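#lab-general

N.A. 3:47 PM
ok so I finally got the sequence cleaned up, no stray characters, all 140 residues accounted for. can someone with queue access submit it? mine expired

B.Y. 3:52 PM
send it over

N.A. 3:53 PM
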Amino acid sequence: MLHRACEAGQGPSSGHRKLPWAQTIIAEAGGQVAAAADPCHGKCSALDHQGTGPFAGLPSPMRVGRYHSLCTPTDGLPDRFIVDAALDGMVLAIRDDEAAQLGLQFHPESILTPRGSRLVAAMLDWANARQRHLGAALAA
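B.Y. 4:20 PM
back already:
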């Protein structure tokens, strides 16, 4: 796990939790987290993303493995979050550049996410760059 000041959030089963998914990040910031209308457990989905943040350089759409029963609607986020990917009105990837936080609503480590290792590497690169940026800002 990365230092709290620069967290790349990804972890098993319960969606966006800070330790390590983003639903906790969203809930702590006053966003909505609710039961999904259609829970997904072991489902492969084609994810369209913006090609931003850790998705830069990855093809869109890309296949991802989803295992969740909770979700955040795209209109249920505080303004500080950037939505990098959404599907059927649900947030599937967010980031907060100022707080250096990332969150996913799918499993990059799943066999159902063929490019997951590239995404995890990109998440770590993003987190390391944000940590350097924040460290330089604190030192100034």
